[in-house]
User: Fold Fe2OG dioxygenase domain-containing protein from Carex littledalei.
Amino acid sequence: MAPPTNESCPIQANSTLPKNFEEFDERKTGVKGLIDSGISKIPELFVHHRKVSLETAPGLQVPIIDLESIDKDEASYKRIVQEVHQASVSWGVFQVVNHGIPKDELDNVIEKIKEFNEGNQEVKKKLYSRDKSNKVRFLSNLLQSGAAIWRDTLVCSFEGSLDPTEIPLECRDAIMKYKEGISRVVDILYELLSVALGLPPDCMKSMDYANTQIFSHYYPPCPQPELTMGLHMHTDISLITVLLQDDIGGLQAVHDGYLVDVTPIPGALVVNIGDLLQCFSNEKFKSAKHHVLASKRGPRMSVATFVAPASDSEKPFGPSKLLLSDENPPLYKEFLIADYNKTHHSKAPNTTALSYYKI
Assistant:
């Protein structure tokens, strides 16, 4: 079914609504600022006229992998590796439980991010920027095919060094504590993924592929969720993305031509296979398409940790040579991560940066 047109669902015309993205951006108050202004209808620039037409499959469930017995014995370890392999081949997304980060730490970072987003507007305005050289920045939205998304984001880039005092005081300690826990989880995941590919356990970790950026997302309740999106359909450009979501939900992944709800599980982390791991594995593992629905419920919070090689690495990236053979030739050309990132930001809509390097 086609999304409602402007005629069938008119957009409120008043001074509280920005007329274009530039005007919205200049306000530096984000989507939360629109809600605070008392709007009952969303601005035209948020209306997505092209929506995903896939059906939702209520009977399907994203794989859930329990890491509790990872050190118990060899049989348990092999079982977990097999589960990671199967999920990475068939789904490109899975959830992990008993990963080592206490639930109260997860709950705390969600709560502190909420406090930041609902706190002093002047603090957010000072951080508002699209300059990627800023290690810590607050921004809103991403234009895709002409439509903005219903979301505000605090970015903390840990590539190289980051002065913790740059992080807003409201969530500084929580984010730094969460970063420590996520680093340990990434080490575990890199080992499991390496072994699942038939590589040495320390393969991915030893290649310095663990540069992280933490994107803390705030999705305000939306008065017209059927017209917009929390995040458009995409695949991640990372090696892996580790996502913490609250209990509201809205994340959906594509599997076998259907949309599948990634149902929130208390204490769980969602793991997305990114395009770079699809390349590194020579398509043994596949990145998963996913999007986020807007909702009248909320606010919804999530924390996405993107893990990838350093953007300034001078080492060419491509399929692991340990996986290649005459029977399994490379499917992608080697490239520099900096060039890959530039391709991502300049690519045509509905394409991936990775597709430009396909052999």
About this structure: The domain at 52-357 is CATH 2.60.120.330 (Jelly Rolls). The first helix runs from residue 21 to 27. The two ends are 37 Å apart (CA to CA). The longest strand covers residues 211-219.
